[in-house]
Every structure is written in C-alpha cells, then in structure tokens.
Specification:
This protein is of the alpha/beta class and 161 residues long. The protein has helices at 14-25, 42-54, 67-79, 113-129; strands spanning 3-6, 35-36, 61-64, 89-91, 108-110, 146-148.
C-alpha cells in the first residue's frame, strides 16, 4: 500500500508530521514526490490530486491535511473516472459537517475542538490574572483525536452487539 499526502500550509506541519511518523513506525519508505503542500482549500486538494493522477505515481490511499482538501481530491478522482474508495481510499481531518453528507461520506479525524478552546481560554485567563509573567509555566497540552470511519476509507466496521 502506498499512501500519499496532500497537506495544508507549511505554517501547520503537525498533520504531515503525523503522516511521516506513521510511516516510520511501520517501516515504510516515504516518497517525497507524493507529498503536496499548499493552501488548505478545496481548490488545492483538487489541483494537487489531478497532478498526482497525471504523474502516474502509484498509490492506493490518500491522507489529507483537512476535509476541504480531501473533498477537492475526491472530486478530482471522480473526474478521472476513478472511484473512492475502490480505486483510492481517502482520509481527511477536522470532521466538518459536510464530511458526513457527501457521497461517499468522508472518513476523517475529529479533534475535541470545544475542549481545546476551553483550555486555550483557561490559559489566557491565567495569563491575564497573573501579576508576574514569570509565574506562568509553559504548558504542552495533548488532546485525544478520534478516527471517524465512514465510506471513503473502504473500511467497514461491524457493530459489536
């Protein structure tokens, strides 16, 4: 299996880093020519996917830096007469509302946005209320992500009831 990556901006490299770490952990070589970076938009996903399809690089799956990129890539795949997930499995990131409404529904990674926002506000309040800037201890917060499996990955999950 060869997985390609269409990421977002270079200002937010964490998602690409996760893609790279998964390859390292699984001892899979990364082909740098199948990693695309640019704007986090539908248009970028569409254009990048067309370029990758025209390049004749072989791949079976696609990881996208966000759901808009993934949806653009899906449209490009379908415009070439290919099918998601039969020809290319796709995973997005963010779980935006439209991800569950498109066909095939997009497999994606969901972040706990409300918890993240609350933590950011709490840190800001702590900074405002602190009389001395030295009293503020830098924090590295980790939040669990959730893989939301839908049709675009080609994976079926049976209910364990």
């Amino acid at each position: 299996m060869v997985i390609i990556c269409i990421g977002g901006t270079l200002n937010n490299p964490d998602r690409e880093l996760g893609f790279r770490n998964a390859h390292v952990i699984n001892n899979i070589t990364i082909n740098e020519s199948i990693i695309k970076r640019g704007s986090a938009t539908f248009e970028f996903g569409h254009t990048s996917m067309l370029e990758l399809l025209d390049s004749k690089e072989e791949f079976t799956a696609l990881f996208c830096g966000n759901d808009l990129i993934a949806i653009g890539a899906m449209q490009a795949i379908e415009s070439k007469g290919l099918r998601v997930p039969d020809d290319v499995a796709i995973v997005g990131y963010d779980d935006i509302n439209i991800s569950r409404m498109i066909k095939p529904a997009l497999t994606t990674i969901r972040q706990p946005v409300k918890k993240m926002a609350k933590a950011a506000v709490d840190l800001l309040i702590e900074m405002i209320e602190s009389s001395e800037p030295q009293e503020i201890t830098p924090k590295n917060l980790m939040f669990p992500m959730e893989l939301v499996i839908r049709e675009s990955s080609g994976i079926t999950v049976k209910n364990s009831k």
